[in-house]
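notes to self, project folder thing:

trying the whole complex as one job this time. last attempt i did each chain seperately and stitching them together was a nightmare. two parts in total, labels are on each line so i dont mix them up again. if this works i'll redo the older ones the same way
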Amino acid sequence: MSLRYTLIDSILLFLFKETQKMERTLIGELRSHLEETVLIKGWLHVLRDQKKIQFLVLRDRTGMVQITHWKPNNQELADLISTFTTESALTVVGKVSDNPSVKLGGLEIQLESISVENLAETPLPFEPFGDKDNLPALDFRLDWRYMDLRRTENLLLFRVQTTMEMALREFWIENGFMEMHSPKLMGSPSESGAELFELAYFDTKAYLAQSPQFYKQMAMAGGFERVFEIGPVFRADPSFTSRHMTEFTSVDMEMSWVESEEDVMSNQERMLQYAYKRVKELHGEEIKIVFGFELEVPQVPFPRITMSEAHQILKEVGYQLPPDKKNDLDPGAERVLGETIKQRTGCDFVFITEWSFAVRPFYHMKKGEKLTRSFDLIAGGLEITTGAQREHRYEVLLAQAKEKGLSPDNIQFYLDFFRYGCPPHGGYGMGLSRLLMVMLKLPNIRETVYLFRGPNRLQP
RNA sequence: GGGGGCGUGGUGUAGUGGCUAACAUGCGGCCCUGUCAAGGCCGAGAUCGCGGGUUCGAACCCCGUCGCUCCCGCCA
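result (full assembly):
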């Protein structure tokens, strides 16, 4: 049976090739097309133009291949090729041949025809594939982001991000979560109000959401039990650091019927472990080559330390917190804690629990008089998550809002969620780019986001 | 918002009071039957962010200004 179908297939394929336009072959798949004439598309990575022979290296998203042209075969074509500039977009037709002496994959393509889709102007603003020592400063690369994105590191980074988001969704769906999309336009400043972007909205004002917090809690009151959202949030903070953005992608989760914040943390650590595992499966080898390290899948459970234990550790290692951080941590303390926990347990992640109500929002459930059922997740010394069990009892929540000096009028729509059978629940928010930054050990968040938005950058 | 640092060819750097401002890379030209991050030779390209001051003389010192950057605050 299989023989017959193979024969018919070959005849059909032959007829197809004779009568139809050629289909594009990806460079990464050329090995399985030896001795065939193929059509490939990509960017001119380098041109080595010698007296009798021309070598073109063409790059697409799957790899690079050398194309060879013996000039005397077609001098007119050779003269045309001589005018090509690196990074031009080309379509090439040629025959694939095995050639072990070619360092690039042991393959080369004997050129038959070539056409220019878009000639790159010269000189380029910078060389995406030049010496690492000559790589322009980040700010300049962001001005020319589309050129910067061509770099191998960036292509891989955004494939890793895609895999990571896929893995998160796989994990959540496997665990009974529903995906939600909450609005980013809001009618009233909800939580603090200080860091909200305000914009004209017909005859009134609107605000850009700085968190889906209230809306995902609404889904708990709505009986969805388990939800997640991956979406944009906006913070009008003039922060000039390597880890802040005014617009970023927030990874949010909320789950009902929790016994405590522990349920949220154990869910999150398993999700992160799964995401690391998937990324390692699909990109571990490339990460080793491109970023130069072995991606480690973290063990669960992650270490958990209370805030007072954290302060004890800081004392032991001699880190001085500023006096106003009695119930809190500063970025330096987070780095030191991350390092110390790594040394003591081998884990890159650590949950800090039992935060003081004084430094937490009103909706975090209290644990005793002063503490809360909340946590931060520190990864590679960087804060990537805040989570908590929420306060779901209307009267208690109202009292906590008042304790924080909030006017109930502004948040009445939110308080109403808790009037008609809202289950106990908890969740967290995690910065997508911060996670990617930690995972790939990159020093600046602007490297890990498609297009950075900050106080001084709205372009491109 | 507070504090520190940096602005030199397209890009990355060197030069810290007396040079026609150097090097690498890229760019242009020539040479080279097979290269492979090719190689060799030649060439173009910077009034040293901008404005003022000190000095016989400023890329270099001082003041201002603009831009960038890092740290803190705030957070993810």
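what i see at first glance: The two ends of chain A are 57 Å apart (CA to CA).
need to look closer tmrw
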